[in-house]
Amino acid sequence: MEAPAPNVPLTFDHLMLPHLDAAYNLARWLLRNDQDAEDAVQEACLRAWRAFDRFRGGDARAWLLTIVRNVCYTHLRQVRREPLVEEFDEAAHGSAETPGETNALAWREAKGELLRQALERLPAEFREVLVLHEIEGLAYKEIAAVAEIPLGTVMSRLARARHKLSAELAALTGKESSHGL
User: Fold this and answer.
1) DSSP letter assigned to residue 135
2) What's the CA gap between 122 and 56, in Å, rounded?
3) Could you state, in order of their start, the residue ranges of all structural domains in the chain?
4) Confidence category of residue 175, pLDDT binned at 50, 70, 90
5) Which secondary structure element, helix H or strand E, spans residue 173, and what is its range?
6) Helical H runs in 85-139?
7) What is the CATH number assigned to the segment(s) 96-173?
8) What is the pLDDT of residues 77-110, one digit of tens each?
9) CATH dotted code for 12-79
10) Consecutive H or E run containing 43
């Protein structure tokens, strides 16, 4: 996007509309339904437009994605589709580490539909960080701002999400997981 000329005020359209695809992508993965995702993005855009006078600059994408995330979680709480927070389970979140090369290979070998199915099986908090980091390309700090969680939580949640995704991919392909799950 080309920067506007000096002294031209930045409008809602200039700052927010370029991020609608990312907003829909996040909403779709959190809500698991195309229509619900469209509704959530529409609601988030309306909320962002109403609050635009309070936007003080900075990362417009992170600001919009934060609103989308909040709308999605409100929707999930209302329909009680799934618990928002997964209990810590030592067996599931154990300290066994998968080498980075194994994870990279799993990502490369996973085909679109298989990966989509595995992502769908993950709890929302894990899908969220994976989508924001791996698909939308947000940095850890940006994810922390969007998800309103500490930076350390982003890193640990992303590690656990990758671990769970690897296990789900292994389960879908009928192979045993390399980390003993």
Assistant:
1) I
2) 35
3) 12-79, 96-173
4) low
5) helix 151-173
6) 90-93, 100-109, 112-121, 124-130
7) 1.10.10.10
8) 888 744 445 554 544 444 444 455 556 555 455 4
9) 1.10.1740.10
10) helix 34-51
